[in-house]
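Let's do one together. I've listed all components of the complex below, 223 residues spread over two lines.
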Amino acid sequence: NAGVTQTPKFRVLKTGQSMTLLCAQDMNHEYMYWYRQDPGMGLRLIHYSVGEGTTAKGEVPDGYNVSRLKKQNFLLGLESAAPSQTSVYFCASSYSRREQYFGPGTRLTVT
Amino acid sequence: DQQVKQNSPSLSVQEGRISILNCDYTNSMFDYFLWYKKYPAEGPTFLISISSIKDKNEDGRFTVFLNKSAKHLSLHIVPSQPGDSAVYFCAASDPGFQKLVFGTGTRLLVSP
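Okay, and this is what the predicted structure of the assembly comes out as:
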């Protein structure tokens, strides 16, 4: 039982490049979330999903897209990376609106 | 608009003493509150939670207190240990939404 896994762990992008972050969970959770963590800003919700095939915007959705084609996977895409998207990205999943289980994070640097 | 606030960015405590981390919220619709602990280079892990129908929940060395009239919750760690050194986030859940709102975190340093 791996819980929540994230791929990749680290990535460096040049401005304008695109990439996809993959989140996978093996707990059969309905809800999945993408957050970014920046110094002094806490955890800010980017997008979330309440079930397979659904997505919704969070607090800071601009510049990101998501897809939930399979229940166990939640993908976060950056179409044209900007330096302001340098951050640590966390994925989480939950079976309710309460306790969320987090992955180990992806550290992204955009130069 | 910051609905969940942790006004102390950091806290230093000696080993064996009590650590008290505070959190304030503005949304009276929040009905469930959680504390998460985060070590460097790791994801946050759930620590303890409390429903709005209670005013206290205890789990070993960790106790969370909720004061609904003041819209304030606190996490007490007794006794504090060096391994408790981490960033602590409080979070709140609104029954109308399938998501949590997090505070900005408090960095706790427990010195031997």
